[in-house]
Amino acid sequence: MVAEHTSLELNRIEKILGVFTDVKAGEGTTAILMFANVFLILCAYYFVKPLREGWIAISDIEGLTKMEVKAYSSFLQAIFLLFIMGWYSQLSDRWSRSALVTRSTLFCISNMIVFWFLQPGFFFEGLPVSGIIFYLWVGMFGVFVVAQFWTFCADIYNDEVGKRLLPLIAIGATSGAVFGSKIIDTLVGSGLVPTEALLLAGTAPLFASIILTRIVEQRLCRSRQAIDKQEDDKLDVKMTEIEKAKVKKQGFSFLLNGVKLVFKSRFLFAIAIVTLLTNWVNTNGENLLFRVIQEDLAIQAAQYGIVGSQAILEFTRDGTTAFYGNFFFWVNVVALLLQALIASRLLKYGGFGAIIMLLPVIALLSYSVMALLPILLIVKMMKIAENATDYSVNNTARHVLWLPVDSVSKFHGKPAIDTLYVRIGDGLAALTVLIGVQFLSLTTAEFFIINIILIFFWLYFTRVLIQERKKLL
After folding, report:
1. pTM of the prediction?
2. What average pLDDT does the segment 75-84 reach?
């Protein structure tokens, strides 16, 4: 962990950044580079994310509703990412930070090109389960590109610097998400660019992000040579190498190291449970939003007189992609405002407890309204409120949470929680859909009531997490 202090006076950039958070002399350049980096990454991600929803919407499986296909795909993603998480953590021990980010991003870029060829209605009419495979891949993409960036942030900043700069860098994430989702909404809605070309367009910002990552790494390497950091860095390197050597001797059992690490710490265990509940509730909400959207598109297709299976599939795919492009745009606009105006101030004056408790409170209010009025407009508005809070204030809370933790725990425990426990939440959401649709025949409003019950457990374990973090500090 390093912090740059090469000047005693703030430069012009640092004074501008001071509007959003406290920035000290010498910190501005790296902060701007990290800001631009995550902007590009999230821009690329939101080129991909709406396509995932559009592709899964036309991946019909006989005997299952569209909501079930989406929910069960999330469960498959949980199993798939268990192995991806272990593989990724192992690579983090073998490669330097810069090499890890570069190679994993290039791997994702190559996958995007492959899926560009495979998407339905382009070179092929439609390959079996291709939408489900793409859905699984997008989850991996989030791990390899998005999650690794925040792990990189948590590793290069110490607790004091991270508390000040991570909210600023997170503004770059929400800004990139706004920009990417707006482009999707505009291009698909106007017809200027075919939906099939969006995957290729998403590769450009990823190439640029690789360059920025390597620039930041070079700056940090030079900064480590500072006299007041030499001894600390040498000790940190020695301890890290010892831990890595122990890990490499464990062979295939390495896949579960991150999971085991979580159960060795009450603090990490509390993070895991809160993460699981957060994603369970949110994924339930996403599945229900998807259900309402598909029902609404079916009504629209009938009203417009669209007939023929291929025409209906294209209408459903484009309609779903366009809806999510618009939905993500508004989610990210609100998230950007919350990130820029609320997150750092709430952290500064309310503390960690205030920012980690905000999302479950917002979710409780939102799902209570949706249970009373389960129509598309209301569901869309309430999900915008929930997701925007998650992507801004709660996103800041998640990253600040890891600042006091050592590097080994970050690169093993954090990927485990950010992948496995998030996907366990997806699996439980899939189980909720299975039981609710196949056995109980629940209405949309009744599904929302289940979420309200889960939120009360979420609130309880969030309080436990706050207490454990205080003990750790």
Report:
1. 0.70
2. 72
